[in-house]
Design a protein that fits this description.
The chain has helices at about 10-20, 25-35, 40-45, 60-70, 75-80, 85-95, 105, 150, 160-170, 205-215, 255-270, 270-275, and strands at about 115, 115-125, 130-140, 145, 180-185, 190-195, 205, 225-230, 240-245. The protein is of the alpha+beta class. It folds into 3 domains: about 10-95; about 105-165, no CATH class; about 180-275, Homing Intron 3 (I-Ppo) Encoded Endonuclease, Chain A.
């Protein structure tokens, strides 16, 4: 027999609400007993449906609130009820039970130091986790708000300046991805690391610029460009470079290419020139 797609029977609706709210039946058991879909049951229940808490019966809800009022911690209650502590907290919130704060989370003395952070004042409870927050001042002078748990467990020890300093310490040859400070970019030009060079951008300078700049004993001026005579962008020998006082056009001069070809032939195939 197929499950009904639409529930128009008021008796079935009342039965769903009664089984769920009064008897503490699970959604799965309700659907099996009444031969309806999960979606139909959830639609009938509306705001009454609490998917993270309704695996426990109404009697168990009462037991949880009683245990908590007697001073039992949420973690111990979760162990007893075989569920998560988050579920216990949600049940307590549903029943409008005020959540106790761990004493040492609330009583951190003003002026106490955690790493680079010094406690200034209690901010109060914030966020979905309802965690106790404290305003702190870092040794670098920045103000920050940190949860008590992060302070006491050592997860937060600064306003973030420790991470910034660490990242700066990993620049250059200290970086784990260091490859010698020389690489060929996507356009085929060689870039080398030289933070002190006047033409450097981001700590790197084009090798052909550095070679020509060293030859001229001055940085390359704005409007000047370096031309590769043979068109090979990673061939940065001084003999292959030419200083232009404006942006040079694409391509190479025929004379330059001929001279380059002759040099290659003399080096690797001199017989071709004597034949």
């Amino acid at each position: 027999m197929g499950k009904a797609r639409k529930i128009n029977d008021d008796k079935i609706k009342a039965k769903v609400v009664d089984m769920y709210c009064e008897n503490g039946a699970t959604l799965k058991n309700i659907c099996a007993a009444l031969n309806i879909t999960n979606f139909a049951a959830i639609k009938i229940l509306g705001n009454r449906f609490k998917p993270n808490c309704r695996s426990l019966s109404i009697e168990q809800h009462k037991d949880i609130t009683d245990l908590y009022k007697d001073g039992v911690s949420t973690n111990k209650i979760a162990t007893i009820m075989d569920c998560s502590s988050r579920t216990i907290l949600r049940i307590l919130h549903m029943n409008e039970i005020e959540i106790r704060r761990v004493k040492h989370f609330c009583n951190i003395p003003i002026g106490k130091k955690f790493g680079r952070l010094t406690i200034l004042r209690k901010v109060g409870v914030r966020g979905k986790a309802q965690a106790m927050n404290w305003e702190c001042i870092c040794d670098c002078g920045n103000l920050t708000v940190v949860t008590a748990g992060n302070l006491l467990h050592g997860h937060t020890q600064s306003c973030g300046c420790i991470l910034v300093e660490y990242k700066k310490s990993q620049i250059g040859d200290k970086s784990p991805s260091w490859v010698g400070g020389r690489f060929i970019n996507k356009n085929g030009y060689v870039q080398v690391r030289d933070q002190e060079h006047k033409n450097a951008v981001g700590g790197y300078v084009f090798e052909h610029i550095k070679v020509m700049s060293g030859h001229l004993h001055r940085p390359i001026k704005e409007g000047e460009t370096i031309h590769h005579k043979n068109g090979i962008r990673d061939d940065n020998r001084l003999d292959n470079l030419e200083l232009w006082c404006s942006k040079h056009p694409p391509g190479q001069r025929v004379d330059d290419l001929l001279n380059f070809c002759i040099e290659i032939l003399l080096e690797y195939f001199p017989e071709a020139l004597t034949g």
